[in-house]
Design brief:
alpha/beta; 2 domains; Elongation Factor Tu (Ef-tu), domain 3; six-stranded antiparallel β-barrel
């Protein structure tokens, strides 16, 4: 998969390649996004041209000043690219979302980022907007095409009669509803990170853990204990993970969130390793225990529940 970074005004020479293009921000690359992308890929095959996705970086709200707080992504850019690669996309255009880009009229956007890129077919979701202040919609896209390129609008994709959306997934992540998140994504929710030194208390409890420092900008699920998988040195392992503030040991006023994973049947030293944590099911909320023995008993119960969960997953 080729990745091409564009900035307005871009200097990309007009390619001989023609594209069937899916366009959108695609945070999460969830099932709704996949319907858009899969149509673009199918159309590319039909027309005998390359399939492409156009996405944007950073999030428009950062540039437009709609939010003061940090924006957290369901899929940071590299994760998004990795996921798109699994969808058989030939080319990804990553457009740098800048103040100048945000000022483009719908007509200018179509000229510079559709016509000039030799796009023969555009696919987007029913709610996709483009151009300054989001004035362009898919009906206008069709008008502006003047028959020079095809346009397909993908209808709302729903699950349980509710729209599949990045906003819905973020809400579910805040609530720790990982099984529903997995359903909407069509895969487990994943957080990349690096294994760093922690307080090593898990070893003394008989449950050594990998302390994972998540990649900046990742959306971290609700605090609690989860059945997880962790990718270490290109191999997935089952485990039980904890997101929280360690209330049994730490002052509740010290708000330092940690991600710890106890990996089953694993005894390697992996400090400094890049890993990916896949979140499957929330087992319980985080709580403070009266002592070490009570905590150890509960961790063993959590571990058994995670083992049983993954055993059941394999049976399905």
């Amino acid at each position: 998969m080729e990745v091409i970074y564009l900035k307005y005004p871009h200097q990309l020479e007009r390619s001989e390649a023609a594209y069937s293009l899916a366009v959108g921000f695609f945070d999460g690359v969830h099932k709704g996004h996949q319907a858009v992308i899969e149509h673009a890929v199918s159309k590319a095959r039909e027309l005998g041209i390359k399939s492409a996705v156009m996405t944007f970086d950073p999030h428009p709200t950062i540039v437009l000043g709609a939010r003061n707080e940090q924006v957290f992504y369901i899929t940071p850019l590299q994760q998004k690219l990795d996921t798109l690669k699994t969808l058989n996309v030939d080319t990804v255009f990553v457009v740098n979302f800048t103040s100048d880009f945000a000022k483009l009229s719908p007509e200018e956007f179509v000229q510079y980022f559709i016509r000039d890129l030799h796009v023969q077919h555009v696919t987007a979701g029913f709610d996709y907007s483009f151009g300054a202040f989001g004035k362009g919609d898919m009906r206008l896209m069709e008008q502006l095409s003047q028959g020079d390129f095809g346009v397909t609008t993908i209808d709302q994709q729903s699950d349980c009669d509710e729209k599949i959306s990045s906003t819905r997934i973020r809400k579910l992540l805040k609530e720790g509803e990982m099984e529903e998140v997995c359903t909407l994504l069509g895969r487990a929710y994943e957080v990349p990170g690096i294994v760093v030194h922690g307080d090593k208390r898990g070893r003394t409890l008989g449950f050594p853990t990998a302390n994972v420092q998540s990649m900046a900008g990742c959306f971290i699920p609700a605090t609690g204990v989860y059945a997880v998988k962790i990718l270490v040195q290109n191999k997935w392992y089952n485990g039980v993970g904890n997101v929280g503030y360690k209330p049994t040991f730490k002052n509740p006023e010290e708000k330092q969130l940690s991600i710890e994973v106890h990996i089953f049947d694993f005894d390697k030293n992996i400090y400094g390793e890049e890993v990916v944590v896949g979140w499957y099911k929330r087992i319980r909320s985080e709580r403070k225990f009266s002592g070490i023995d009570e905590l150890i008993t509960q961790i063993e119960l959590d571990k058994q529940e995670a083992i049983e969960y993954f055993a059941g997953e394999q049976v399905k």
